[in-house]
Amino acid sequence: MKTVEDGVVKFNPIDLIKADKDGVWLGGFKAKTDVITLGQGFVKIGDKVNVSYKQL
Question: Could you tell me the superkingdom of the organism this chain comes from (predicted)?
Answer without folding.
Answer: Bacteria
